[in-house]
Design brief:
Elements lengths: L2 H16 L7 H8 L3 H12 L3 H23 L8 E4 L2 E4 L6
Antiparallel strand pairs: 1-2
Helix pairs in contact: 2-3
Length: about 100
C-alpha cells in the first residue's frame, strides 16, 4: 500500500475515533478520504480486514465496555467484571465462563 493511502487510512481511523459518539457513515468517510464509496470500502477492508461499519461498531462496543469497566472499578467494594480481548474487541466474561 502506498504511503499516501496509508496516511489517508490513518486519518480515517483518527476521524472514526473522534466521531464514535456521532452518526458517522462510510459515505462521509469516503468523501473525506477523496475516494468513491466503493473504492474506499475496498481499501479499508484490505487494510483492516473489516468492513467500515463493522470496524465502527466494534470500536463503539469496545469503548462502551471500557467505560463500564472503569465505572465498576471505581465503586467501593465492587469487583469489576473480567474482560477478554478477542480480535481486538473486549467482551465481558460471565461467571459461568470462568
Amino acid at each position: 500500500m502506498s504511503p499516501e493511502i496509508e496516511e489517508i487510512l490513518q486519518q480515517t481511523l483518527d476521524r472514526i475515533e473522534k466521531a464514535l459518539q456521532t452518526d458517522i457513515t462510510p459515505e462521509e468517510l469516503s468523501r473525506a478520504a477523496g475516494f468513491s464509496h466503493y473504492h474506499f470500502c475496498r481499501i479499508f477492508k484490505a487494510a483492516t480486514g473489516l468492513s467500515v461499519m463493522r470496524y465502527i461498531t466494534l470500536r463503539r462496543t469496545e469503548k462502551g465496555i471500557r467505560q463500564n469497566y472503569y465505572f465498576f472499578a471505581r465503586l467501593p467494594g465492587a469487583e469489576p467484571p473480567l474482560l477478554s480481548s478477542n480480535e481486538g474487541v473486549l467482551r465481558w466474561f460471565s461467571p459461568d465462563e470462568l
